C-alpha cells in the first residue's frame, strides 16, 4: 500500500475545502474560550457563523510569536489546564519562551500525522528508526518518537550528540532510518569514514528524515551520497505541534502539507496580502485539528511558495517548495538582501569542499564586509596554485548569486567549530551606530 490514510491523502480539492471550512468553524468556536482569542475575535466581530467560506479567514488578524510570548505561559489555552497533558516550549533566549499545550487528543493526532509522513517515504513496521534529536522540551524528539511508535517501527531514542554512540547503535541494532539535522548528518558520516566504516556498505541505512534547519538541495544530495540513503525533507515547528506539519513524498519534489490539520496561506511579508501559487512569500498557518491551543493565521516567518500542479504520488494536499530562508534570518549587506542558504547552495556544488562553513559579517574601515570560511575536503590538494584557482572560481559564483563579492577563506578540515545540534552558520560582528 502506498498510503497510510488513502481516503484523506487523496481527497479531492472540493472535499478538502469542505473539511477545512467545517474544522475552521469548530476551531474558531474553540479558540474563543482562550483569554487571548476571546478578545481578538470579539474586537473584530468574528464568530464561527461569520465564517462562510475559506476566503473569510482573511477577516481574522494574524497571530505572531510576540503574541505567544506576551501571553506566557497559558494565556493562549482554549481548554482548562486540567485537560492538558503536556507542555512544550522554546528556549526563550530572547525573552519569554513560546509555550504550546497539548491535550491527549492533540498528542494522538500528532502521532498519526508523523506516522502518515513516515509511511509516505516508505517506512514500515519492519524498520528500525533511530532518533538523533533532543528530547525534553524540544518537539523533534518526542514528535518523531510517538510517530514511529504509531507506525510500528522499532525505535531507538538515541537523542542528540555522541557520534560514536550513535554509530554503535546504527551498526548493532541494524538501524534503517535516521531522523537527523542536515549539518549533523554530514558530520556523522565524516566520523564513520574516519573510523573506517563505510555507511553505504557497512550499515542497513536506507532513509534519513532531515529538517530543523535550512538546507540546500546540494546539501541533501551530499548526505545521500555520503550515507548511501534517500534523504527526505521534513518541516515542523513547535507552535504547530512539531515535526510532521509537512513532509516530502518519494518524488522529492516539495513537501506535502497536511491540509486536514492545517490551512496554509502564503502572503507578501511586507504588505501581508496573499500571493499567487508559485510566488515566494511568508508561510502563514492555521491549525484546524487541535483543541488545547489552536492558532489562527500564525506568521511563521518562513519564506516559501506553493508548488502549482499535481504530484505524481497521487496525494492531493498542497506542496511547499524548499524553504528559501526566514524573513527574520535575512542578511542585509551593502543594501543587498540575501540568505545563508544561497551561500550553501554554491559551496555544496564543489566536491573539493567539506560540509562545514562559517559566514562572518564585520565592519572594516567603516564598511560592512562578509567573510566566508569553508573547510576543504580531506581528499583535496594543498597545492597553492590549485587552491588559488579554486578560490577564484568559488568567489565568482558567489558574486553571481549574491550580487556582491565576499571574502573567501579556504581552511583545513577540522578548523571550524562543529556542533552536534543546529549548526551556527552566521556570526554578525558588525558595529551598528
Explained architecture:
Pathway: Aromatic compound metabolism; phenylacetate degradation. This is Phenylacetate-coenzyme A ligase. Residues 335-430 form the AMP-dependent ligase C-terminal domain. Catalyzes the activation of phenylacetic acid (PA) to phenylacetyl-CoA (PA-CoA). It catalyses: 2-phenylacetate + ATP + CoA = phenylacetyl-CoA + AMP + diphosphate. The longest helix has 19 residues, at 13-31. Strand 6, helix 10 and strand 7 form a beta-alpha-beta unit. The strands form five sheets. The chain has an eight-stranded mixed sheet with strand order 4-3-5-6-7-8-9-13, sandwiched between helices. The protein is 31% helix and 23% strand. It has twelve helices and 20 strands. It has 433 residues and is of the alpha/beta class. The model has no long low-confidence stretch (mean pLDDT 93).
